[in-house]
Amino acid sequence: MSAAETSAVRSTEDHSLTQADTPVIELKNIHKRFEQRPDLAQRILALGGRPIDRRTVYAVNGVDLAIRRGEVVGLVGESGCGKSTLGRIVAGLHRQSEGELRYLGQDASRLRGASKLAYTLGVQMIFQDPQASLNPRQRLRQILGEALKVHKLAPPRDIPARIDRALSEVGLDREYRDRFPHQISGGQRQRIGIARALMVSPKFLVCDEPVAALDVSIQAQVINLFMDLRAQHGFTYLFISHDLGVVKHISDRVAIMYLGKIVEISTAAEIFAHANHPYTQALMAEVPDVARRGRKFTPIRGEIPSPLNPPPGCTFHPRCPHAMPRCREQAPALREISPGHWSACHLNDANA
Question: How many CA atoms within 13 Å lie on the side-chain side of 280?
């Protein structure tokens, strides 16, 4: 082999390695604000000199996160912390107010044409409420085949076979094709939501509380289905949940989110064995455990602050048992406290 040929092969190998190492999704300093638009009455009053009260919800505040190929990242936090909003940003359903979202190394906001379609189809979302996410006027075959028809991803004669294959992959018989969403159970509707995502051969799935509305026995079946699909297709997941038991079972890494910020992130094993942030520790203490059935249950004190007016400094300080004066004034940076384990807490500086 000549020197030129050897160089070309190495170049190709290096490019393939770079592509393999490129995160499927990378978030850089993502912010999302929802600003209230003045209604007609407010605009009329403004003409008379009355100032308009523009209320702003700070849903996501500076999130950095990279998710590698084949990885399952669990995103955990209380209701109202912004995790569903972050998932919708990843799926392209919300546009971030600030920051950069990269898909396979490319800025998603700059994608056009075929590249934009590849991102739109490559990142699919599975919603918490399967009933609300399915068109009640369409039969299941219409719901499942719609994306193939709209985007011309398959000739019409091949669509029925694709539908049958997707139903089989999620554990449903082909006879379900002609049913309406109200004619099947909640667990079956969630399987249809998963099958709909599979129809376009995605690379990345955003799962927004996909088992929260299901019975415990059905939850286990759906979780096992997610794991089977990952093994078969090599899917990458952002798995959003408030159930730490589910997250521990399915996730490679876990990110803890509080009031729009990620306060701790590491492998699932490390998070559950050595939780560092006081908020993470409080969440872990609330997980039901047979071995600790004699313990006294102590919930996290207080309520999560309003995203309309986040507290200054560390946003967890009003509820934190270890809060110091510094916590009320300065927001802690998310920094690495051990290999692969990141936490945002001033206590780490005090203990260093």
Answer: 26
Residues 302-316 as b/e (b if ≥16 CB within 10 A, e otherwise) read: eebbebeebbebbbb
Three-state secondary structure call for residue 155: coil
Q: How many Å apart are CA 253 and CA 74, to the nearest integer?
A: 6
d(CA 211, CA 129): 9
Look at strands 253-258 and 236-241 and give their pairing. unpaired
Q: Which residues contact 228 (CB under 8 A, 6 or more apart)?
A: none
Question: Is 68 exposed, middle or buried (CB count within 10 Å of its CB: 0-12, 13-18, 19+)?
Answer: middle
Strand bridging mode 253-258 / 261-267: antiparallel
Rounded CA-CA distance 84/138 in Å is 27
Instruction: Give yes or no for residue 57 having a pLDDT over 50.
Output: yes
Chain centroid offset of residue 60 CA = 12
Question: Which strands make up the sheet holding 253-258, listed edge to edge?
Answer: 123-126, 204-208, 236-241, 72-76, 253-258, 261-267, 341-343, 335-338
Predicted TM-score of the model (pTM): 0.86
Burial annotation 119-134 (CB, 10 A radius, 16+ → b, else e): bbbbbbbbbbebeebb
Alpha-carbon span 160 to 150, nearest angstrom: 15
Which residues, 6 or more positions from 251, have their beta carbon under 8 angstroms from its beta carbon? 72, 73, 74, 239, 268
Q: What is the pLDDT of residues 93-132, one digit of tens each?
A: 999 999 999 999 999 999 999 999 999 999 999 998 888 8
